[in-house]
Amino acid sequence: MLPWRLQSVRLPCLSSLNVTIPANSWVDGRRVVELDLPAGMWLSLVGRGDEFLVPQGPTVLKAGDRLTVLASPSEKEQVESLLNSAPGRSPGRPHQ
């Protein structure tokens, strides 16, 4: 038996998104601090293999990582855009 009780928290206007970093993502190899996430979006958990990490600024994300992101439903597209951006460029930068 666990020494704590897990609870579900419902925050107004936030959804929990579970996404996997694709192999060709701009995010692969980047530190969390480099992602420049919008103020209302929180990267709350990283699943890597059989481990779970609580991400911090210097945490390096890798292709195949499973992310749990808290965001408003309207920010779901931003999360998908961020993860599916081509290597070598961030979603906000023009192609070089």
Q: What's the helix and strand layout?
A:
Blueprint: E1 15-20, E2 42-48, E3 51-53, E4 66-71, H1 76-84
Antiparallel strand pairs: 1-4, 2-3, 2-4
Could you please describe the fold and organization of this structure?
This protein is 9% helix and 23% strand. It has one helix and four strands. The protein has one helix spanning 76-84; strands spanning 15-20, 42-48, 51-53, 66-71. The protein has a four-stranded antiparallel sheet, with helices on one face. The mean pLDDT is 79.
Summarize the structure.
By secondary structure, the protein is mostly beta strands.
Summary tags:
96 residues; mainly beta; four-stranded antiparallel β-sheet; 4 strands
Overall pLDDT score:
79
Rg, please? 14 Å
Described by the principal axes of the CA atoms, the overall outline is globular
Q: Fraction of residues in helices? A: under 10%
Note poorly predicted spans. Answer: none
Strand content: 15-25%
Alpha plus pi helix count: 1
| Total number of beta strands | 4
The termini sit apart by: 54 Å
Oligomer: single chain
Question: Which structural class matches the secondary elements?
Answer: mainly beta
Order of helices and strands: EEEEH
**Cross-sheet strand order for the largest sheet:** 1-4-2-3
Query: How would a crystallographer describe the biggest sheet?
Result: 4 strands, antiparallel
